[in-house]
Hints:
Blueprint: H1 5-18, H2 21-36, E1 54-56, E2 63-65, H3 66-70, E3 75-79, H4 86-104, E4 108-113, H5 117-127, E5 133-135, H6 140-144, E6 148-150, H7 153-161, H8 166-171, H9 175-180, E7 189-191, E8 194-198, E9 204-209, H10 219-230
Parallel strand pairs: 3-4, 4-5
Antiparallel strand pairs: 1-2, 3-8, 6-7, 8-9
Amino acid sequence: xxxxxxxxxxxxxxxxxxxxxxxxxxxxxxxxxxxxxxxxxxxxxxxxxxxxxxxxxxxxxxxxxxxxxxxxxxxxxxxxxxxxxxxxxxxxxxxxxxxxxxxxxxxxxxxxxxxxxxxxxxxxxxxxxxxxxxxxxxxxxxxxxxxxxxxxxxxxxxxxxxxxxxxxxxxxxxxxxxxxxxxxxxxxxxxxxxxxxxxxxxxxxxxxxxxxxxxxxxxxxxxxxxxxxxx
Length: 231
């Protein structure tokens, strides 16, 4: 049963009513460019070993290691762009509500984004996220999974026009300085929205990523994989 995509489609419908056509055209063009780049084909496929990672937790600040989590059970890793993206927030809230089912099936869930610890802390507190939200500065881990990409100049201007300052969100450095440029180009990296399930030996048992940020895998697909790994 589709739990998530109908909610995302509703966001798209409302956005098309509220946002000027010329701005929507920029977003559509960038999605088309990402699709043409074949980035979806670069993500790590099912059957390959996932890279080990250690990332800081938004609440405790402690390093969370994938190897420690996998010692406890299969691991669901949900890559999201940031709290500024209503699609990502909707997906996180859906997983928040389904987290008990993930645990019942023996799995653990973490969310990963390039936003700063402070922004991730806001995400946890504002939306009541019960699972770890980890900070992947510069999208280094997302890059290992094959889903990181640099934001295009067109999209940078678009984000600024809707008051989304990606370098500031990712690093917390002075917002005006971030808008003027400078700094590390990795501040402009984003991950494709993606979900991976790792079996306890680190093998990827499920992988789904979309160049179109309005599309996400249905949670029941992930839950079915966890059920299979449990048996």
